[in-house]
Every structure is written in C-alpha cells, then in structure tokens.
Specification:
This protein has 223 residues and is of the alpha/beta class. 47% of the residues lie in helices and 12% in strands. The chain has 9 helices and 6 strands. It has helices at residues 21-32, 36-46, 54-66, 74-92, 99-108, 121-130, 148-159, 173-182, 209-216; strands at residues 8-11, 112-116, 139-141, 166-170, 185-189, 202-206. A 6-stranded parallel beta sheet has the order 3-2-1-4-5-6, sandwiched between helices. Helix 8 links the parallel strand 4 and strand 5 (185-189). Helix 1 (21-32) crosses helix 2 (36-46) and helix 7 packs parallel to helix 8. The radius of gyration is 17 Å and the shape is globular. The chain starts with 7 loop residues before the first strand and ends in a 7-residue tail after the last helix. The relative contact order is 0.19.
Length: 223
C-alpha cells in the first residue's frame, strides 16, 4: 500500500488502539441484566454490531433481547450504566500492539492523527488522557447517538479534509460503511469473524497496528 499521498490518518479507538471490545460487550450485558443466559445473548449480539453507535446498540439490545419498548427513563439508565462499565473496560484493557509506535512514527512524518470513536466525547477525552494517548493526536472526535458515518462526514467538512488524503484504520463494519459513504480509504485492523463481509472498499486487513506499521512504515516491533 502506498501511503505517501495520505496526509490524515484516522484511528478507531475500541478494538484498534485499545483492545476493549470484549470488556465492552460484557459491559453492555451488565447494563441490562444480571441473568447469565441473557447476558450471553447480549454479548453474542454485541459482536454483530461492530462500528455501530452506542445509542443504536442499546436500542438493538432492547428490541432483540429484552423484547419490549423502553419504559420512561430506561434508555438513559442503560446509557449511563454502559458508560460506567465501558470506562472501566477502556481504562484496563491492553493497548493494541504497535499503538504508540505507529502514532509516534506518523507524528514524526508530520501527518495529521485523528482519533474517531463512537465513545461520547467527555468519556473519550478522559480515557485517552488516562491511557497517555491524548498527546499523540492532533484531533479527537467522540460520538454517541449518531452513526460513525455522520462523525466522519462532519470531520471532513469541519476540517476541510479531502477524502483522497485520508486513511481510516478501524475494526467494525459500521466504520467501513462510514468510509465508503465518504470516499475515504479504509484499512481493517483486528478483524473478527468476517466483519468486513465481501471486503468491498477495504484496501487491506491486518491483525493489529503493529503489522500495518511494519509493512507500511518500516517499523521493527517485537512480538
């Protein structure tokens, strides 16, 4: 892959920079129920919602697993409980292999580094600061109750970025759809169980950022 024409590198956070997807899946389950079998069903559903915004995930669990409309204030309670559980997961999960090295190298190359996540802005800012990752980014954009496609389109519009100068590195099908809609190049990282379908619009897939950095940035990283 020739990345010399790319000026802006956009990184998904959960599953790419911070390996918190498993913890977040169980956090979503815990936000809804204490029943073990039902929690397992929620976790299984969570793995099918890669790159989907937080609000949509909560609504899908309510519809497909709980099977009734939200009662008054229930959506907000689920949202807050998941925020608590996902914060714990993101604070304690390991960083993706090569995370700091890739970001450092791109900084030395004077590239624009962007963190783009479905995690709400205040929570994302806190996590990146606590994990010592905030200093690696020129821009940080959180999300929430809107699709990643809207976040990416808004980023390009606000900053005046051209789609052709951007590369999005992410792990979810919602991320890929966002890249397709905006015309941004996409690299899959840490793909789980055929997450990217027919791989249309996927330039390449790597097991982690380290593998991408070794091939495209010439980094030499330990296993």
């Amino acid at each position: 892959m020739d990345i010399s024409a790319k000026r802006v590198f956009i990184f998904d956070v959960n599953g790419v920079l911070v390996l918190s997807n498993l913890g977040n899946a169980w956090g979503m389950a815990a936000a809804f129920t204490d029943d073990p079998p039902q929690r397992e069903r929620i976790v299984a559903l969570y793995w099918q919602m890669g790159g989907i915004d937080r609000g949509s995930k909560i609504r899908m669990v309510q519809e497909k697993i709980i099977g009734r409309p939200f009662r008054e204030g229930e959506f907000e309670r689920r949202w807050e409980r998941f925020r608590e559980f996902s914060s714990r997961s993101m604070m304690s999960a390991p960083l993706g292999r090569g995370c700091r090295e890739v970001l450092t190298c791109l900084g030395k190359l004077e590239k624009v580094r962007v963190a783009l996540s479905n995690t709400p802005p205040a929570q994302l800012k806190d996590v990146l600061e606590q994990r010592g990752l905030n200093r690696y980014f020129e821009l940080v954009r959180g999300g929430g109750d809107w699709p990643k496609s809207a976040s990416l389109a808004r980023l390009l519009d606000d900053q005046g970025f051209q789609a052709g100068e951007c590369l999005f590195l992410a792990d979810g099908r919602g991320d890929l759809e966002a890249a397709r809609l905006s015309g941004v190049g996409f690299v899959g990282i840490n793909e789980v169980a055929g997450e990217f379908g027919d791989r249309r619009g996927v330039a390449a897939i790597y097991p982690d950022l380290a593998a991408w950095g070794e091939e495209n940035l010439g980094l030499k990283l330990a296993e």
